Amino acid sequence: MRLAGLGSGSAGNGILIAAGSSQPDSLPRADSTTTVLVDCGFTLKEAELRIARHGLDPAQLEAILVTHEHSDHVGGVERLARKYGLPIYLTRGTWLATRWSKPDALNFQFIEGYAAQQIGLLTVFPYAIPHDAREPAQYVFRYQDKQIGLLTDVGHYAPHLAQVLQALDGLLLECNHELALLDESSYPARLKQRIGGRFGHLSNCTAAAILRDIAHSGLQCVIAAHLSQENNRPALARAALEPVLAPLGLTDRLHIACQEQGFDWIKIQ
């Protein structure tokens, strides 16, 4: 399995997940790989450029999965799906809450009751998250005996999260803000309350608490994601997570996703 990021943050999100055979340079091969895109918060042109940067043509994608209806996650989904004939997997709540310009031209695959989905070689396990959206979902992807879990846009450490994210080989984990920076920021009080509230976004501290409960010696990568450009710094996210990974000897497996570049392909083996 492999994963890569188109970009991560409030200006646009997108994550590539691939399973199957790979070339020596670890890029996916269209003939023997299932590759999906989770969210697309970019314009069509920007999404195409960012996907190409990772060695892919959007026509090689098997599907787009949507986490929720906020524009930084769904803003570019419709145009990309329409142009390339891609099915869109999402909950009915997300479908209802999103403004589609031409819904009849789209192939929606509804996730009912967070039931598992089979998309090519990937088994996908959707799960509920606490966020201020209609019916948000995040995903764990399995291929053979490997698993990659995604956890972003989460307001608090809900009891079920540690169970869902057990025994992962790769984890993408939201580190949205540092509490002190959020408190001191220029954001209006109402926005600060939303971001730091129970249905907002994870702080570095809460992300570290989640990681502490699920980290194990077999974890091959942890990617800190959805960092606020105003209310966080890569060094602060790293400082929060490294002490959790250090006792396991995993500090070299920590990566930071950024808004402009996302992150390059990371292979899970």
UniProtKB/TrEMBL annotation:
SUPFAM superfamilies: Metallo-hydrolase/oxidoreductase (SSF56281). GO terms for molecular function: beta-lactamase activity; zinc ion binding. Residues 34-215 form the Metallo-beta-lactamase domain. Pfam families: Lactamase_B_2 (PF12706). GO terms for biological process: antibiotic catabolic process. InterPro entries: Beta-lactamase_class-B_CS (IPR001018), Metallo-B-lactamas (IPR001279), RibonucZ/Hydroxyglut_hydro (IPR036866), WalJ/YycJ-like (IPR052533). This is MBL fold metallo-hydrolase. It comes from Parvibium lacunae. The lineage of its organism: Bacteria, Pseudomonadati, Pseudomonadota, Betaproteobacteria, Burkholderiales.
